[in-house]
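INFO batch 0412 | record 1 of 1 | parsing
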Amino acid sequence: MRFLPLPGMAILLWGCGGHASRIEKVPEELLRPKVAAPKVADRHPFGDVAKVRLGQWATYKDGERTFTVAAVAAAGDSLWIELIEETDPRVVSARLISPDGVVTKAYYGEVSRSGVKSTVEPQTLAQDASVRSGAKESGREADEETVPVAGKELKCRRVTVRFEDLEGRLTKEVTLWHKDVPPVYAGGEGGGLVRRTAAASTVTLVDFGSDAKPLLDLPK
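INFO prediction complete | emitting tokens
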């Protein structure tokens, strides 16, 4: 085996230094997973934001889906509302909504349960294509029902509404409301929605509160 003399070894080591051996810090934004943002409707599909207070949130279960609606920031008389799909990672759409329900801006991102955040991407606004039912109300009755929610017993206002469509078919919707539940998803005279049952679908309140903070780091 051939060895380099010490002066030669020193020159070789000196040649390995300098800028080529320096470790550059990668910007945090480049380390974040990049996501593709879906389109979002230009109308807010949930409760009247004019009746929502900053920090209010509610989590619901609809079949296999669990989601949260949260009022996380104010911008003048508009509110940033985050719709959060409670998966892993959590899928978040943050929407700036004016008092008349118009979505003026929207951003999309994902946040893992361990706290790793994706990039935040703008969402394209698309014309609201939702179709309203032509059924007319044919009857209504109200009573009370007590249901457990997140360790609390809520004495709710129960409203049963019957509808008849243009072909004479009858349907029924049963909703429960409570004054302490935030109206971020749906609100009425009796407060926020606790449960809605219509046809084969049931949406049920899981938890609620008033301490919501933004999950997404929105562009300034």
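INFO post-check: The chain has two domains: 29-126, 136-209.
INFO record closed
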